[in-house]
Design brief:
The protein is built from 25 helices and 16 strands. By secondary structure, the protein is an alpha+beta fold. It folds into 5 domains: about 5-90, Zinc finger, CHC2-typedomain (DNA Primase, Chain A, Alpha-Beta Complex), CATH 3.90.580; about 105-240, DNA primase DNAg catalytic core, N-terminal domain; about 245-365, Dna Topoisomerase Vi A Subunit, Chain: A, domain 2 (3-Layer(aba) Sandwich), CATH 3.40.1360.10; about 375-430, Pheromone ER-1, CATH 1.20.50; about 450-595, Orthogonal Bundle (DNAb Helicase, Chain A). The strands form 4 sheets. It has a 5-stranded antiparallel beta sheet with strand order 1-2-3-4-5. A 5-stranded mixed beta sheet has the order 13-12-14-15-16. Strand 12 (about 260-265), helix 10 and strand 13 (about 280-285) form a beta-alpha-beta unit. Belongs to the DnaG primase family. This is DNA primase. GO terms for molecular function: DNA binding; DNA-directed RNA polymerase activity; zinc ion binding. RNA polymerase that catalyzes the synthesis of short RNA molecules used as primers for DNA polymerase during DNA replication. It catalyses: ssDNA + n NTP = ssDNA/pppN(pN)n-1 hybrid + (n-1) diphosphate.
Length: about 600
């Protein structure tokens, strides 16, 4: 786990205006910078970036966060990768769990990655240059209906029909990086001698594969004739793992947000052709089955994923593997569908023959995950017999067991129960599902508790906006707030611990990032603070002092009323009453003195 102190230091060094400005054109507007929101369609800028708060906020869709959050949402990378990206830009080294690796070994690994990345970039530029001087390759792309514009968008290139054409751009053709990156192949005899090196890709249309940062990490090469294999992919390398990457995701990110869904196809040409035909939100797996990592990456970009498969047996098998990969991530706020085209069509041919509107209808009518799952487990079962119904339940059990507890899982359980003449509770018990839903009422999630209101909200809001003030409060002040709002004790404890850990240098951005993972209750406050102009800390300090004094006064009033109700028949009660009156008078004089000074 990355230490919170490192995150705080990173956010202090990084300028969010520079980070966001790499992806969104920004213009100065008062104290902030403005631009068109990258997370929803808009014609007038409502997206603001605050250099003082180091926070972004969209008044249109409500998106907000720190520089780390922006990279996560915009690029679809994970938290650790976003932190590493930002750290690299400001010369910081992220502390990791593998710090026991010797520095020399770590440096060697970093040097290798840099060399591989540089080799891939040089090769990509070389292949793109070749395409300009390859009339047969250009003619082939035109025959597939592709324009120069879409070819340029995806960086398409051409590898000439030569055994060592890369020698012209790599002076050291014997460099280790060329083999490690998969660009060339070393051939040896049975004894390991007489090594001969040659280019892996020859006479093929080249599709560069990019990671979420836009860096080229691999290639797919397609023959233009009838050669085999039709597609040749880069091998697994330190840069490229097929099970982790999706072709076209980098190019499709904005289109996915605009469309509200991502379309997952089976090949490079499907992605490029669909972009040409008005569906730029398409991506493809890289010659391998869809994995859980693929699904996780897609669901970072959008809440709706639609898989498009051929209607033949191979397409059905691929869809089933995709279903298995999706189930651990299936939830109530995610929509996953499966589109099966007629056997004679792929997405490219379908759109060209029947039109974009017909394809959009196919997408709209795609089969939901729940229906596909039930179809799969009942397809070969005779539901008119006990044995057939039992077999359907047997096939469904491992699929439902890997789904997270959710309303969606309950709906599928109920559907299966109806098909197999059972009850939802019986299936949950029989399948030993974790956290059964049909048999127990779920408690409301922590994030759905009522938001704090009134004076308690004012106090918490001030502590979130200016976390450094929290470290100035003594234990008596904090106890007064906790006593006044006992139902917020956990929330206050979390806030106090985070702020005090950060110390006097704590700021809104670093605290908001700290609360991002487990602070759903703070979300509305963070959004509210992000949307407003930054408040002066001295004013905030006075407001916080006044608010805490009010909580103390309210607590004194409550205890005085309780004592009065008892009749104060004992000396202890009378003494306590006088003590409370004295405290009340002290607070009143304190308030008057501070008002006079202002």
């Amino acid at each position: 786990m990355i230490p919170q102190s490192f995150i705080q230091d990173l956010l202090t060094r990084v300028d969010i205006v520079d980070v966001v400005g790499r992806y969104v054109p920004l213009k100065k507007g008062g104290a902030n910078f403005m631009g068109l929101c990258p997370f929803h369609n808009e014609k007038s800028p409502s997206f603001t970036v605050s250099p003082t708060k180091q926070f972004y906020h969209c008044f249109g869709c409500g998106a907000h966060g720190t520089a780390i959050g922006f990279l996560i949402e915009y690029s679809g990378v994970g938290f650790v990768e976003a932190v590493k990206d930002l750290a690299q830009n400001v010369g910081m080294v992220v502390p990791e769990n593998d710090d026991k690796i010797p520095p020399a070994q770590r440096a060697a690994y970093q040097a290798q990655s840099l060399a591989l990345s540089e080799a891939m970039t040089i090769a990509c530029d070389f292949y793109r240059q070749n395409l300009r001087n390859a009339p047969d390759a250009v003619a082939y792309l035109k025959s597939r209906g592709l324009t120069g514009e879409v070819a340029a968008k995806f960086g398409l290139g051409y590898s000439v029909d030569n055994w060592d054409s890369l020698r012209t751009v790599f002076p050291d053709y014997e460099a280790t990086a060329l083999v490690e990156s998969g660009l060339v192949i070393d051939r040896t005899d049975e004894e390991g001698n007489n090594r001969k090196r040659y280019d892996r890709f020859r006479d093929r249309i080249m599709f560069p594969i990019r990671n979420t940062k836009g860096q080229v990490i691999g290639f797919g090469g397609r023959v233009m004739g009838n050669g085999e294999p039709k597609y040749l992919n880069s091998p697994e390398t330190p840069l490229f793992q097929k099970g982790n990457e999706l072709y076209g995701l980098f190019e499709a990110r904005q289109a996915i947000r605009d469309a509200g869904y991502v379309l997952v196809t089976e090949g490079y040409m499907d992605v490029v052709a669909l972009a040409q035909l008005g569906f730029p939100q398409a991506v493809a797996t890289l010659g391998t089955a869809c994995t859980a990592t693929h699904v996780h990456k897609l669901l970072r970009q959008t809440d709706q994923v639609i898989f498009s498969f051929d209607g033949d047996g191979a397409g059905r098998r691929a869809a089933r593997r995709a279903l298995d990969a999706c189930l651990p991530h299936a939830g109530d706020n995610k929509i996953i569908k499966f589109l099966f085209l007629p056997k004679e069509h792929d997405p490219d041919s379908f759109v060209r023959e029947l039109g974009a509107e017909a394809f959009e209808r196919q997408i709209h009518d795609a089969m939901p995950l729940s229906q596909f799952l039930l179809n799969e487990v009942t397809a070969e079962a005779d539901l008119n017999t006990s044995e057939g119904r039992a077999r359907a339940q047997f096939d469904a059990k491992p699929l439902l067991q890997i789904m997270p507890p959710s309303s969606l899982r309950l709906q599928i359980v109920r559907g299966l129960a109806q098909l197999t003449q059972s009850t939802a509770a019986e299936i949950e018990s029989l399948f030993e599902l974790v956290k059964p839903i049909a048999r127990a009422r779920l408690a409301p999630p922590r994030g759905n508790r009522p938001a704090p209101v009134g004076i308690e909200r004012q106090i918490i809001r001030l502590m979130v906006a200016h976390p450094s003030l929290t470290s100035e409060l003594d234990d008596a002040a904090l106890a007064a707030v906790a006593n006044f709002a006992p139902d917020r004790a956990e929330m206050l404890a979390q806030l106090i611990e985070a702020s005090r850990t950060m110390g006097a240098q704590a700021n809104f951005a670093s605290l908001a990032e700290h609360l991002r993972e487990g602070g759903a209750e703070f979300e509305s406050l963070i959004a509210e603070i992000a949307a407003q102009a930054e408040s002066d800390i001295e004013t905030a300090r006075m407001e916080l002092t006044d608010a805490i004094r009010k909580t103390k006064m309210e607590s004194l009033k409550v205890e005085l009323a309780q004592l009065a109700a008892t009749g104060m028949g004992t000396d202890d009660a009378r003494n306590r009453y006088r003590e409370l009156i004295s405290q009340q008078e002290y607070l009143r004089r304190q308030a008057e003195a501070e008002m006079a000074q202002r």
